[in-house]
Amino acid sequence: MKHSDRVTPDRKRPPAELPFGEDFQTILSLIGDGVVSTDQDGRIILFNRAAEDIFGYTMNEVLGCSIDTLIPTRFHDHHREDVRRFCSSEAPLRRSMGAGREVLGRRKDGRELAIEATLSRQMIGSQHIVTAVVRDVSDRKTLERQGQVVANEVAHRLRNTMAVVDSIVTLTARTAPSVAEFKETLLGRFAAISRTNDSLIRGSWTDASVRLLLETELAPYQDSEGKITLTGPDISIDGQVAVALALVLHELATNAAKYGALSTSAGLLRVDWQVSADAIPLFELIWEERGGPTVVAPTRRGFGSELIARSLGPHGGRAASTYAPQGLNCLIRLPFRSVNRPADDPVQ
């Protein structure tokens, strides 16, 4: 809805005298759609109860006023020309406005609203009368726009997800020593994407809670109280970044379960995240393992490191790992623009 200053009806002129009896007025008051009739000078001569609800005027306020009272100022000239053509002898006696396009009306308080109207013209005596049956479709138009936004978001996310899938398949095939391991690794990574998309679907499709991503990914490994500690504010990150972060977390969790702190009963994992107070704020996540097997730094960059870099890179993020003997430390940093706002439904 658009807003402008409160509208004052123009000076009234006496409308055309037409034989509308009480029975006719009673019937009009029962109609759910607004009915507005004008004389050949464009002055309102009929205004039913539903029209009062739609436009905010009483019948007595608008009778004798120009129909321009109900139309945004910028459309006055266009509307007059439209009605002139409609009233020409070649034009059909009935036509629709707003079908397939948005037509705007103006309320008494200055707000604009989307309407659909069906026009008809009649000759009553010597008077050329135009009647509009009007329906407020503002709520429907809003829902249509919201639906289109969601459809565009889904299509965009699908394209991005397919690109991620293609990259995962290529990298996994390059490093897997056997078909069985290729299948197992691939399915695990696809599952991480699926879980994140499930979180997005349950939410707004636009962002996901960092805490929820971590709890979902680490749930299979939380076999004892205190084994995994999560500490950080309830913030949400952009949906595209959430998919990338989910892949990174899945990679870290898988490695921890195979070789690190999550592979032993004594192992502990702590994950902290925050938004830094730097001049250019950053989202920071620290993954810290303790109590697992002694860590030995790799001699070459493996697939996991490459996947993490590829996942974070397009979003301006990076990860730095420290292979301390007592356990792996990994610092993930992403620009603060990827962090939208506090989560709508915080996870305690």
From TrEMBL:
Name by which UniProt lists this protein: histidine kinase
Superkingdom, taxonomy of origin: Bacteria
Catalytic activity of the protein: ATP + protein L-histidine = ADP + protein N-phospho-L-histidine
The entry's keywords: ATP-binding, Kinase, Nucleotide-binding, Phosphoprotein, Transferase
PANTHER family: ETHYLENE RESPONSE SENSOR PROTEIN (PTHR41523:SF8), TWO-COMPONENT SYSTEM SENSOR PROTEIN (PTHR41523)
GO molecular function, one term: ATP binding
Keyword Nucleotide-binding applies: yes
Record-listed E.C. numbers: 2.7.13.3
PAS domain sequence ranges: 20-100
Organism from which the protein derives: Brevundimonas mediterranea
InterPro entries membership: HATPase_C_sf, PAS, PAS-like_dom_sf, Sig_transdc_His_kinase_HWE
tRNA processing found in the keyword field: no
Pfam families cross-referenced by the UniProt entry: HWE_HK, PAS_9
